[in-house]
Structures
1.
Amino acid sequence: MTNNMFFIANWKMFGDLRAINSTKKVIKFSKNKKFARAQIVYCPPYTLIEQFNKITKNSKIKVGAQDCHFLESHGPFTGSVNANLLKIIGAKYVIVGHSENRARGDTNYLINLKIKSALNKNLKVIFCIGETLKEKKKNKTNLIINTQISRGLKNIKKNKNVIFAYEPVWSIGTGIIPKISDLEKQVSLIKKMINKIWKYKNPQILYGGSVNSKNVRQLKKIRSINGYLIGGASQNANNFIDIIKKTII
Ligand code: PGA
């Protein structure tokens, strides 16, 4: 394995001073040449982006946000943050289409607008897709994912700044990961779906959902995965470092 691997920390609505301090350990670790292939991205809550930019300044760690508003222009949208504001504060990445936000009303149409506005601001997009347990049980996984991809990318030309994250909703925060053989098949199907729309054979695809230092050795067997979107296990510096070590070595 020689390609870069992404380790994207999705801190969700967590992050206290102790957690931020402990990331200094990760910053130090990221400078170890042995792990040069690891592309570490922290996506803390909006309120911590600036702080993260400061502490990661002299490292290769990048900082991103967990969502953005769909409008590119500024406006009277209390509580919202758009791609432009993220750019101003120094974010380089943004997660779009996370199932927790889909559950709160993000439609494929809105996600498409969010991706467009983020790309216009030169942010790298981590575009989340994945089926719920109910959809899986009804054998609708491929239909759902295909719809999420085709609607999410509507009128967007092939763009290497879009990184896909396959996150089966039933895997997020549950401790359950798909069977390795199933996941491998699913990732290859997703690649086919993207290739059909973009004529792009090797899009970057991450896996997300209960990734931890115990199951990562299993997951890394899937060579077609370009890294992980990590929630719970990314909040503890030692766990996060452990995941990276076990993937790279
Ligand atoms: P988890 O979350 O690692 O805690 O399952 C992943 C995610 O929601 O991106």
Note: The CA atoms of residues 97 and 106 lie 7 Å apart.
2.
Amino acid sequence: MRILSGIQTTGNLHLGNYLGAIKQWVAMQDQGECLFFLADLHSLTGSMTPAERASTTIEMAATLLAAGIDERSIMFNQARVPAHSELCWILQGTARMGWLNRMTQWKDKAGKNRDGAPVGLFTYPVLQAADILAYKATHVPVGEDQKQHLELTRDIAEKFNTDYGVDLFPLPEPLISKAAPRIMSLRDGGAKMSKSDPSDMSRINLIDSDDLIAQKFRKARTDPDPLPDSFDALAERAEARNLVTIYAALADVTPQAVVDQFAGQGFGAFKPALADLAVAKLAPIRDRLTRLLDDRAAVGAELAKGAARATEMAAPTLRAAQQAVGLQI
Ligand code: TRP
């Protein structure tokens, strides 16, 4: 199993980012050879400033290290490994306009103003295919929203192999984690926890102090009813459901196990238990993160080390792709 995934860089990571993706990645290090990268090249299709791009890359890398990504994995930023861009260009000869035109993310992000959209937004999934195929990754942990890009990667890999009569690229499988919960805002159970929510009380940031974490859970919106004995009974109680989901994800148990434990109790009892658990799990990550953010050069050095390993790993595949299409390199 060769596992690879990329993540968009953002600043101010929160509990939703941690439980939704990062924690899954940390656990996967036991399951196979892992490559994790920061998609800084992909970020050129968005509206980040250069300063933000540089700082969020380091902050995201520091967060991954703080959360437990270690030497078992190869962690790097995409831009430091030229094979991604080089293979992307080759694969642009294979990908078809019609395929990319069907991508829902392209349609959503370009909106009505397609003429004004960056070309890179359209070819974004081809770079994603190159990310994956450069390492012959077999498994790609992604969210539900990236399934279509994975299908496209398989189509590109298959067409390349067929067109050039090679058996170069394996067809990667998406790993859609059932353990990856959707974490909602602490103020509104109908909205995703988000760094762009104007209320800081809506989210637990990974850099929040113990007191702030406790305060945010104490003030989280809930309802006056006690917890039921079945998780399904929380279907119409979005805020309550969210807190139970968070507890379960932090404790590595099922949401049903959480309601089994707290059935009949109100939020006056549940919230302090949740706050204690969150502090116990998040404080060590925050402390490591704070130290790493004080030594950004060291984080940069980790990325450079990862990039060197990644470059070496991608080299034979890039070379084989160049040879397959007849490029004299
Ligand atoms: N597009 C992915 C996202 O938005 C990030 C990404 C870029 C990625 N390249 C990848 C994910 C390769 C998996 C594999 O989440």
Note: The chain has a mean pLDDT of 96.
